[in-house]
Specification:
Distance between the termini: 39 Å
Helix content: 25-40%
Number of helices: 12
Radius of gyration: 44 Å
Shape: elongated
Number of strands: 39
Largest sheet: 5 strands, antiparallel
Structural class: alpha+beta
Strand order of the largest sheet: 1-16-3-12-13
Strand content: 25-35%
Oligomer: single chain
């Protein structure tokens, strides 16, 4: 069977197959060229936007360090070679000055070793009860024996519960599993095992160990029983002299003596004085600003090549950038260029790049005028920092200004704040003043057992039953004991709350929550027979609830929680948070500036956002147009196929007619040859 395609041209002798292809190509060429040109243009625009996005990201990276005040508070230190002290870190904002250090003593941790030995560390001790480990300072008698113990109020006591099947190793493990720096280990000495317990370093972190069962008395170390444990090392503070002034610390890791300088004490070396100087380091910030100017110029030249029109100097031919007619790209570049020439919001006076000698040239790039720039760095360095980095300030030390997670929404500027209610902490106050007492003294009735138990509720959390024990000769001794008892209660510790016990000049005791706000409160919920008369605290003692701070910011009511005041949602100051101290009533002001670096970074973020950014939205639009071209291409291909089919059918019909005519002609010729007088003679 002869195919249609092969039939084309069979009768006429014309190459109709080629003719159909040529006619289809002619019909396709114009619309195909339009589609190809448009697709090429759109794809080049996508590529150009990729280059623009990349250059924006590079520009943003160049200002990352300038978005923090730390770069403008860099410090340099000239530290001599010494094995007495090891400098670890010099932070931004370190206190400048000349210093001389002398290490008189290094901190030491108390070590206790149980005298009782065991053949097997993993065998049951058949001991039950609780070991209470308190941290504090020991005083010693003339024979260097423990005489009295003063508990460290800032440290929490440990309670180790020992079961009958616990081994020596189990006790050590239980001590190590506590959330403390107390560490225990089992030593093998001369074929026998002993328990060793190490305290945190420092004089105030020594250990007092008390058991509540005779089976555990071998681990006691207290004023009544200290012979069961050997104190191989006493707790000791580090002592250093800073410019001749003696300073004591519990650890050899020192980070709070000279602000911003972290160093380690390696050994005592009295008489060896180590001198060094901490100075401002403006060179780091200067280099970063120069890097930013270079990065901006690179960005601008890239952007200009994409959106501008260039003229060849030799041929005078003009060439338009890929995005020369793209309004979105031009708007992005215009916004960034405008930021380089305008003042920084929220900064007064010295508030623009031109103030520090950075000028915009005719071609749009930035130029550093060296003499002006150097003068600004040398004489107005704080003002230079305010141009680039975020800055907050307050008219009163009672208000601290902070930037929250939504600070990107805050409008830079000056704000009025009025505090109408000062934050406060909940408390309970004793009914009478302190007088000395001893909890072991039965008082008037020698047959009675004194009851100094009590319970307290702090911030809504009820304590367990607590019992006051000791001989109290001063109000401060009672204050310390109460604070330790309450803060070491398991319920109070679990809730991560606490109290401070205070005594006024008259001897009145107050138990004060450590939290601000309406949820803050302290009350005595139960009392033993002797507790109230001895301490002046009872279930009838006056409790005062804490209060949340209240006030307005720029006349709008603000939200107060504890001592934190937050601007109204959607207001200009939204994203700024204020920490208010007690007694900050009245009218004040605070200022907020995001700085040029943060403003520029935030602007770039809005351009580069994957969903709402101008570039992403424009790219989506271009990709949509490319998708439309694909649809147009399918439509064109469909029409050309139909056109080709129509031509093929027409030429096939033509060939059929020609073939028919040829057949008819052949028949007529044969017939003509047979007619009389027409036949050919042989």
């Amino acid at each position: 069977m002869v195919s249609i395609v092969s039939a084309l041209g069979a009768g006429s002798g014309i190459d109709t197959t080629s003719l159909v292809e040529q006619l289809v190509d002619v019909q396709r060429s114009a619309p195909q060229a339009r589609l190809d040109t448009k697709k090429e243009t759109l794809e080049s625009q996508i590529s150009a936007y990729g280059a623009l996005s990349s250059s924006l990201s590079t520009l943003q990276d160049s200002i990352a360090s300038l978005t923090s005040e730390d770069i403008f508070n860099s410090r340099a230190v000239s530290f001599p070679d010494t094995d007495v002290i090891t400098p670890n870190e010099l932070s931004a904002n370190a206190q400048t000055g000349s210093y001389q250090l002398e290490v008189m003593a290094i901190a030491q941790a108390q070590t206790l070793v149980a005298n009782q030995t065991f053949d097997d560390k993993d065998s049951s001790l058949n001991a039950t009860g609780n070991l209470t480990i308190r941290l504090g300072a020991w005083s010693y008698d003339a024979s260097n024996n423990p005489a009295s113990f003063a508990e460290n109020e800032s440290a929490q006591a440990l309670n180790i519960e020992v079961a009958a099947d616990d081994t020596l190793q189990d006790i050590a493990d239980k001590i190590n599993e506590t959330d403390s720096q107390v560490q225990a280990s089992v030593l093998l000495v001369d074929g026998a095992y002993q328990l060793m317990i190490n305290a945190p370093s420092g004089e105030d972190n020594a250990l007092e160990i008390t058991s509540d069962d005779a089976s555990l008395s071998g681990f006691n170390f207290n004023t009544a029983d200290y012979s069961s444990m050997t104190e191989t090392l006493q707790g000791q503070d580090a002592e250093i002299k800073v410019n001749g002034l003696s300073v004591f610390r519990q650890s050899n890791e020192i980070d709070d003596v000279i602000t911003g300088l972290d160093f380690t004490l390696n050994k005592a070396s009295a008489g060896e004085k180590i001198s060094f100087t901490i100075s401002e380091d403006s060179a780091t910030a200067e280099d970063e600003i120069r890097n930013f100017v270079d990065a901006y110029n690179t960005f601008y030249e890239t952007a200009k090549s994409l959106t501008g029109i260039s003229t060849d100097a030799d041929t005078e031919e003009t060439t338009a950038g890929t995005l020369a007619s793209d309004g979105t790209a031009k708007a992005v570049i215009s916004r960034i260029r405008s930021m380089m020439t305008t003042s920084v919001p929220g900064v007064e006076d010295f508030n623009a790049l031109t103030n520090l000698g950075i000028r915009t040239q005719l071609d749009g790039t930035l130029e550093i005028v060296e003499d002006e720039f150097s003068a600004a760095i040398d004489n107005n360095f704080d003002d230079v920092a305010a141009i680039f980095a975020p800055k907050t300030s307050s008219s009163t030390s009672a208000i601290e200004v902070g930037m929250g997670s939504y600070s990107g929404q805050a409008v830079p500027g000056s704000y009025d704040v009025s505090i109408t209610t000062s934050p406060s902490k909940g408390s309970v106050t004793s009914d009478s003043v302190f007088s000395a007492f001893n909890t072991a003294d039965p008082g008037l009735n020698p047959l009675a057992t004194p009851d100094y138990s009590f319970s307290v509720e702090v911030d809504g959390v009820a304590s367990q039953s607590l019992t006051l024990e000791g001989d109290f000769t001063s109000a401060d001794e009672l204050r310390s004991a109460l604070q330790s008892l309450i803060n070491n209660d398991e319920n109070i510790k679990a809730a991560n709350i606490g109290v401070d016990v205070q005594v006024d000049d008259a001897g009145v005791i107050s138990i004060v929550s450590r939290e601000f706000g309406s949820a803050s409160g302290v009350s005595i919920t139960a009392q033993g027979d002797d507790f109230a008369s001895a301490t002046g605290l009872s279930t009838n003692s006056v409790s005062t609830a804490g209060t949340n701070v209240e006030g307005t910011i720029n006349g709008e009511p603000a939200f107060g929680s504890g001592n934190i005041l937050l601007p109204a949602v959607g207001s200009d100051a939204y994203g700024i948070n204020l920490t208010i101290k007690e007694g900050a009533l009245g009218d004040h002001t605070f200022n907020f500036s995001r700085g040029l670096a943060s403003e520029l970074s935030l602007l770039v973020d809005t351009f580069l956002d994957d969903t709402t950014g101008a570039i992403a939205m424009r790219e989506d639009n271009i990709n949509s147009q490319i998708d439309d071209i694909a649809d147009d291409q399918d439509d064109l291909d469909r029409r050309m196929t139909m056109f080709e089919d129509r031509l093929t059918a027409q030429f096939t019909a033509m060939e059929a007619i020609i073939t028919s005519l040829q057949t008819t002609g052949d028949s007529l010729s044969s017939l003509f040859d047979t007619l009389p007088n027409t036949a050919s003679s042989n």
